[in-house]
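User: Hello! My lab partner asked me to get a predicted holo structure for this protein. The small molecule is fe (ii) ion, SMILES included with the sequence. Please write out the structure tokens.
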Amino acid sequence: MSVLSDVNEVAARVRNAMYEGPVTPYYGLNLDDVYNVLQGALASEIICVLRYQQHYYMTTSMHQNQLQGLFKEHWQDEQGHQNRIADRLQQLGGVPDFNPEGVTARGFSTFESGIRWRASYVKTYSRSAS
Ligand SMILES: [Fe+2]
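Assistant: Hello! Below are the structure tokens for the protein in complex with fe (ii) ion.
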């Protein structure tokens, strides 16, 4: 067997592996564990998006426009993370779980609504906005 035929054989294997997707025989991780971690991360990102959206709409202060800009930027960042995780789940053969039922149980983040978050966030973000 010549070096050239080895290269052709390797190239053919690589091409075939690419068609099989990201989970190769060498992947090495337990896919159920990977799905569980990614589902938890996805739920956390969903919670973060919702939390920043609530902060956006609840913001009232003399820095309202700046604060809303920050919160909107945060929620868009979190949506980007959410999309990337959902893409990765799909690539690995999983099903991204966007069902709102159980999101807080699956996620690693908490959703704080109402007055509790307001004092600390407005104080923190007012400092960074000014
Ligand atoms: Fe995030």
